[in-house]
Amino acid sequence: MLILLTNDDGIMAPGIVAMYRELRKLGEVYVVAPETVQSASGHGITVNTPLLTSRVKVEGAFEGVAVDGRPADCVKLAISQILPKAPDLVISGLNSGANVGINVLYSGTVAAAIEAAFLGCPAVAMSLYLRNDVPADYAWSAGLAMMTLRQLLDAGLRSSGVANVNLPALRSGEMPKGIRVVRQCTRPWVDTYERRQDPRGRDYFWNTSVFTLGATDSDTDVAALREGYITVTPLQFDLTEHLVVEKWAGQQWKTGG
Q1: C-alpha 245: how far from its chain's center?
Q2: Per the omega criterion (within 30 degrees of 0), is the bond before 213 cis?
Q3: What mean pLDDT, rounded, does the chain reach?
Q4: What confidence tens digit (pLDDT) does each residue in 72-109 have?
Q5: Collapsing DSSP states into helix, strand and coil, what is residue 79?
Q6: pLDDT of the residue at 190
């Protein structure tokens, strides 16, 4: 199996190193990831400047390609130019921080997986919920991510399919309560901004928001992750509201006067 591994935390991030070591158990792994942190970059791509690349060795674990671009750039470039053939599987992560709820829309981690699905490759976004009172153990969490991935593959991760997986904050050796397949929470969360002034007296604003697993319905990714479960959410990138299409298609639409 040929696997492409990427992320949005940057090629030097501890999560991608831990995930690489686990994925080697499945097949040949190519790492193509952003040169720098690209968190909350969404599905942006680079079109007006060149994409610079360099080969880097990371922690004695792998030699990968660092791209001076965004996560979606990395996937596009890897599949069209760098890999010897289209990958059998694309993994994005292991991300430092959960990607549940509306964070899915902002996440560069999820965007990389969706980009792979655009290009016909099955893909999984992997993220680790971080809590101040629980030291992050990326090696342990990557092992749990691999356990989940094997079951996803057995369940039938289809070509051009995307799964969003989030792992709870666990101490070394601690097991999750289980794995739950859940829907994405769509409740908004409130942004907070600190107003400041520059030396010339002009206002500027600093986003001080801290993502928390807030109130939600019991059948969502936010609720299950808060309860200590590994969450699995199948995603689609067709944003069409099909019921409205059917309703409006039957309406008489006028042109002219």
Answers
A1: 29
A2: no
A3: 94
A4: 999 999 999 999 999 999 999 999 999 999 889 999 99
A5: helix
A6: 78
Closest to 112 in 3D by CA, of 131, 93, 138? 93
Q: Which CATH architecture has domain 2-185+215-249?
A: 3-Layer(aba) Sandwich (3.40)
Which alpha helices (DSSP H) does the chain contain, by range? 14-23, 71-77, 103-106, 108-118, 138-155, 221-226, 242-249
Phi, psi torsion values for 42, nearest 5 degrees = 60, -145
What are the residue ranges spanned by the domains of the chain? 2-185+215-249
CB atoms within 10 A of CB 92: 34
Residue range 147-181, pLDDT digits in tens: 999 999 999 988 888 999 999 999 999 999 999 99
Determine the Cα–Cα distance for residues 218 and 227; give it in Å rounded to an integer: 10
Tokens matching residue 137: 């153990």
Please state, as a whole number, how many other Cβ atoms lie within 10 Å of the Cβ of residue 214. 14
